Structure formats: structure tokens, C-alpha cells
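User: Reviewer 2 asked us to show a designed sequence for the structure in our supplementary figure. I'm pasting the C-alpha cells here. Could you produce the per-position amino acids so we can include them in the response letter?
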């Protein structure tokens, strides 16, 4: 089983990356990519977790299609920001030494929230849900834990309208649903997705952990067959982000807007 590590919620937009990019003369995206290699290397260090071990700049440069000197410049600029010598600053604060003892309680609370959401979806009728979404990385991990224990269904082989090479994938991925959404959006004049942002990816992973491929297909079919969701009746709030919220996804699946 693969190991895990944690990212802080505003990691992709942390202002430190801009400072490091400016000092190193490299692009922000390359800075973040190099940091991810550093983070994984430090996490895998069995001798001293949180410190770099046998970090190969040449391999990282090859993986990112950069020059060795560019990677070295980024690492040098990270000193005092996210690196303290060979050790990641803030590692002990952000990365737990072991899973906390309340994991089972959090998992139980998550299941209760899912149950309550399903009950609310059955009593709120056709009113569009405008509540802010509460999906988090923790929620997604708990959802995956449920799948691993057999409490939620694992998705089947994805067969959305994908190219031949994608049909060999044995698991539904966020990119597959984005492609299916964009295909639907082109048919019913909805906005297409240009970027699968970290927030969207996390939300989709949470949905994928709790629903089967057939249920994803049914949601898309219900949208296409609903005059209300298509916007024929004047409401235009059925966007990708609205659909992938927990309560809205469940209500569409249950046919609350079928008419």
C-alpha cells in the first residue's frame, strides 16, 4: 500500500512560491513541482522522516524536463522558506508521526453526515441547494477508507465517451468525468471546464469514492433530460461546480429535477 503525507489547504497558492520563483528565476509551476518531489523524498526517508535522503537533482530535472541548474536554483531559493538545510521546515507541525486515535470517530461522523445529507435531499424537494460545499481532503480520505473496508462501492471500469487508450483505465478518475461533462455541456449549452483545479479534483474524488460509474452516468443523463437543469425554464445554476456538490449530486441522482 502506498504511503500518505499531508498538504496544507492553501499550498498551491502559498505566496512563498512566488518569492522562490523570483529568486531562482524559474516558473512558479516548476517551483511547486520540485517541492512535491522534495516532499515525497522526505516522507519516504525511513531513517529521518522529513529530511532529504539521496535526493537526485538529475532525476528530478529529467522528470520535469528542466536543466539540473534550474532545479538546483529552486532548491537554493527554498532555503529559509521551506527548507532548513536538508530538512523541510514545518514538517513536524504538518506531518503526523502516526494516525491520530480519533480516526474511527471521524469516520463515524462522516457516515452520519452522509446519512443526514441523504435525508435532507429527500425533504427539500426541488429547491436548488445553494449551501457552500464542505468537501475537504480529510473527507475524501475517509471516503476512500470506507471503500477499502467495503462500506462503499468501488467504481467500475469507466466507459464514458473516451478515446481508446483511456478505456483501458480500470478506475474512474476526475479527468474522465470532466471529459464527459464537457461533452454534455456542448450538447446543452452549458459552460465547459477549462481547468481541473485542486478544489474540483478533491470534490470529484469524494464523489467517486461514494458512487458507482453507473450512478455518474445516471446523473449526467438526468441533467440532459431535465428541462429545469438544462436551463429551459430560466434557471442557469446547473454548472459543473454546482452538480459536483454532495447534496446536489445526490438529488440529481434521485431524480428530484426530472420533469
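Assistant: Here is a per-position design you can include in the supplement:
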Amino acid at each position: 500500500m502506498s504511503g500518505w503525507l499531508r498538504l496544507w489547504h492553501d499550498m498551491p497558492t502559498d505566496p512563498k512560491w512566488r518569492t522562490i520563483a523570483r529568486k531562482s528565476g524559474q516558473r512558479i509551476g516548476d517551483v511547486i513541482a520540485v517541492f512535491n518531489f522534495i516532499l515525497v523524498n522526505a516522507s519516504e526517508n525511513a531513517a529521518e522522516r522529513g529530511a532529504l535522503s539521496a535526493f537526485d537533482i538529475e532525476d528530478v530535472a529529467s522528470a520535469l524536463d528542466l536543466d539540473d541548474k534550474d532545479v538546483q536554483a529552486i532548491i537554493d531559493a527554498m532555503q529559509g522558506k521551506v527548507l532548513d538545510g536538508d530538512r523541510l521546515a514545518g514538517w513536524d507541525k504538518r506531518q503526523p508521526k502516526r494516525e491520530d486515535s480519533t480516526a474511527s470517530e471521524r469516520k463515524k461522523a462522516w457516515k452520519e453526515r452522509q446519512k443526514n445529507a441523504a435525508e435532507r435531499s429527500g425533504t427539500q424537494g426541488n429547491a436548488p441547494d445553494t449551501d457552500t460545499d464542505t468537501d475537504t481532503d480529510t473527507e475524501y480520505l475517509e471516503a476512500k477508507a470506507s471503500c477499502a473496508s467495503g462500506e462503499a462501492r468501488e467504481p467500475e471500469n469507466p466507459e464514458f465517451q473516451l478515446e481508446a487508450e483511456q478505456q483501458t483505465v480500470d478506475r474512474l478518475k476526475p479527468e474522465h468525468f470532466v471529459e464527459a461533462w464537457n461533452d454534455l455541456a456542448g450538447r446543452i449549452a452549458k459552460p465547459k471546464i477549462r481547468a481541473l483545479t485542486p478544489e474540483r479534483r478533491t470534490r470529484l474524488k469524494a464523489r467517486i469514492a461514494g458512487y458507482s460509474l453507473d450512478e455518474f452516468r445516471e446523473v449526467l443523463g438526468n441533467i440532459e433530460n431535465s428541462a429545469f437543469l438544462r436551463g429551459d425554464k430560466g434557471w442557469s445554476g446547473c454548472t459543473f461546480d454546482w452538480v459536483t456538490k454532495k447534496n446536489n449530486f445526490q438529488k440529481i441522482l434521485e431524480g428530484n429535477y426530472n420533469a
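For the response letter, you might also mention the following. The chain has a mean pLDDT of 77. Residues 103-253 form one domain.
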